[in-house]
Amino acid sequence: GYHRVLEENRKLYNQVQDLKGNIRVYCRVRPSLGGRSDFKSVVDSIEEGTITINTPAKYGKGSRSFNFNKVFGPSSTQAEVFADTRPLIRSVLDGYNVCIFAYGQTGSGKTHTMVNILSDFYKLYKIVSHAKYLDKTWTKHTGPKDLTETSQGVNYRALSDLFFIAEQRKDTLQYDVSVQMIEIYNEQVRDLLVTEEIRNNSQNGFNVPDASLVHVASMYDVIDLMKLGHKNRAVGATALNDRSSRSHSCLTVHVQGRDVTSGAVLRGCMHLVDLAGSERVDKSEVAGDRLKEAQHINKSLSALGDVISSLAQKNVHVPYRNSKLTQLLQDSLGGQAKTLMFVHISPELNAVGETLSTLKFAERVATVELGAAQVHKDTSSDVKDLKEQIANLKAALAKK
Ligand code: ADP
Ligand code: MG
Questions:
Q1: Alpha helices (H) along 135-248
Q2: Cα torsion for 327, 333, 334, 337, to the nearest 10°?
Q3: CA 89 to CA 270: how far, in whole Å?
Q4: Which residues are annotated as a binding site for ATP?
Q5: Cβ–Cβ < 8 Å for 201, 212
Q6: Are strands 62-67 and 50-55 parallel, antiparallel or unpaired?
Q7: At a CB cut-off of 8 Å and minimum separation 6, what does 364 contact?
Q8: Is the predicted ipTM greater than 0.95, yes or no?
């Protein structure tokens, strides 16, 4: 009897999970960087999808909990974080559009999650060049084997996986992969893949038609391009003004798969976005360029929030055109597209104000997911009810 009920509950629970919409929100907490053993994190606890923050007096002393699809604690590895992203890579190859964001204040770990290949990039590049030469430790499609458990971020892992799956499917589907890399700074789009050698390869139908679209055949090519993009991005930065934290950067992957027998073609696209720092800038303290940057960032991040809420409400008019960022992502937000937001927070007390507003923003996005599922009942309380029922049944079973 009990087992049947348990099974039934599990089925119901899975159904509720399936009803969820296409926006998932994961929270990641950066470790403390000081390395002090007496460090006191503002994070009180992490339990599956729930994170609880200790709020200091200034924010109403006590604690506040936030719910997400998952929370990754400070000791989570790059591989663990990527594991949940994997199904999305498969979706791209199945012809879906996918969008993966990193959101959070400057210094909270966005670039670490997405593009960390760059921090040990030159080391990696040396190994790659060497392996290319030896052609032994290197597997053409997936990258150097011995580096798979290191610090590379989502961008690198996503492309590596993509090539891996494409290779597995090659007898039935032939894939063609090309990438774009752009930066949006003060509402201006800059192509990060320009060189003398790469010809501007514009095609109709892409959202940034003027940005170079470069064909890539393997991880060799991808690494070359990541290096080029990184170099070009650094050009705009000065010592005083870390431009990378005030601009959005986006790696876009276009995939075309041709069915070997029927000749039918499917298209998928994936945007991997490292957003500008979400911190609010104290208007009394900034002027000139800094103020202009802050206004542009605020504008584009709130435009993103508006698009997401509008999608959730099933509005006929979705305000994609209010910012360059949402324009770029238009085809990959809403509809059949799948969206994942990594929300980053710092564990330090001096960042708690920003941490709380980041979590509030993210929570708003996370609840949108239930709205987008088009169910006319409160699924979050359903899940809670079912969890309670399961707990009760487990307790009853334990007593037997
Ligand atoms: P953001 O891009 O949000 O400004 P970064 O990714 O540059 O932040 O991270 C700030 C610093 O913290 C960097 O030195 C980075 O290497 C480090 N860092 C961030 N997240 C982690 C993590 N999960 N583990 C170890 N170091 C991290
Ligand atoms: Mg960054």
A1: 154-168, 219-235
A2: 130
A3: 8
A4: 104-111
A5: yes
A6: antiparallel
A7: 305, 309
A8: yes
Q: Phi and psi at residue 195, in whole multiples of 5°? A: -145, 175
Distance separating alpha carbons of residues 144 and 120, to the nearest angstrom: 14
CB 347 within 8 A of CB 43: yes
Query: Alpha-carbon Rg of the chain, whole angstroms?
Result: 22
Residue from 81, 112, 278 whose mutation best tests the ligand 1 pocket (most atoms within 8 A of CB): 112
Looking at the chain, the whole-number percentage of residues with pLDDT higher than 70 is 73
Instruction: Report pLDDT digits (tens) over 306-354.
Output: 888 888 777 888 899 999 999 998 888 877 788 999 999 999 999 999 9
Q: Where are any strands of DSSP class E within 123-264?
A: 138-139, 143-144, 173-185, 188-191, 214-216, 248-259
Measured from CB, residues less than 6 Å from any atom of ligand 1 are 30-31, 33, 104, 106-112, 119, 245, 344
- Which one-letter amino acid corresponds to residue 99? C
Name the helix (H) or strand (E) containing 326. Answer: helix 324-329
Tell which residue, 22, 100, 96, 87, has the closest CA to residue 254.
96
Tell me which residue has its CA closest to atom 16 in ligand 1: 112
DSSP 8-state symbol, 56 = P
pTM for the whole thing? 0.80
What are the tokens at 223?
A: 């690494």
Q: Supply the residue whose CA is at minimum distance from atom 12 of ligand 1.
A: 109
pLDDT tens digits, 124-145:
555 555 444 444 444 444 444 4
The letter for the amino acid at 206 is: F
Contact by Cβ (8 Å): 255, 175: yes
In sequence order, the 6+-apart residues with CB closer than 8 A to the CB of 387 are: 13
